[in-house]
Amino acid sequence: MANKEQLQKEVQTIEDQAVINEIVLFNDDVNTFDHVIETLVDVCNHTFEQAEQCSILVHYKGKCTVKTGAYNDLEPRCSKLLQAGLTAEII
User: Fold this and answer.
1) How many domains does the chain have?
2) Contacts for 55-61 with beta carbons within 8 Å, 24 or more apart?
3) Is the pLDDT of residue 16 over 80?
4) Between 50 and which of 46, 57, 59, 65 could a Cys-Cys bridge form, CB atoms 3.0 to 4.6 Å apart?
5) Which residue has the higher pLDDT, 48 or 20?
6) Positive or negative torsion for Cα 45, 22, 76, 84
7) What confidence category does residue 13 fall into, taking pLDDT thresholds of 50, 70 and 90?
8) Measured between alpha carbons, how far is 43 from 37 in angstroms, rounded to an integer?
9) Beta partners for 68?
10) Residue 5 has what pLDDT?
11) pLDDT tens, position by position, 30-85
12) 51: closest CA among 73, 25, 80, 83?
């Protein structure tokens, strides 16, 4: 029985060390700051201040990581960003 528990702990440790994916938002010449901020608040659960800072980074740096996590969590969020007219990808 101890072997099964040890194996489960090892599997959990490996899962915890899994690669973390990121949604990267890219700058464009179409969307307003307000639209980007509102979308990040709605889709990525950012605070207003966090979304505002991300929008400024995207504007001046060209891109910004807006969310990290498991791919299964990020994929629907990235799809919603794209549907909102933003340019984003999961890396």
Assistant:
1) 1
2) 58/25, 58/26, 58/27, 59/27, 59/33, 61/27
3) no
4) 46
5) 48
6) positive
7) low
8) 10
9) 22
10) 78
11) 999 999 999 999 999 999 999 999 999 999 999 999 999 999 999 999 999 999 99
12) 25
List the CATH number of the domain containing 43. 3.30.1390.10
Helix, strand, or coil (residue 7): helix
Evaluate whether residue 31 is within a structural domain.
Answer: yes
Where do the DSSP E strands lie in the chain? 21-26, 63-69, 87-90
- For every residue of 46-67, DSSP letters joined together read --HHHHHHHHHHHHHHSEEEEE
Query: Does residue 11 belong to any structural domain of this protein?
Result: no
**Is 91 within 8 Å of 36 (Cβ atoms)?**
no
Q: Which residues are within 8 A (CB) of 6 and not within 5 positions of it... i.e. 6 or more apart?
A: none
For residue 31, give the nearest of 68, 82, 85, 75 by alpha carbon.
85
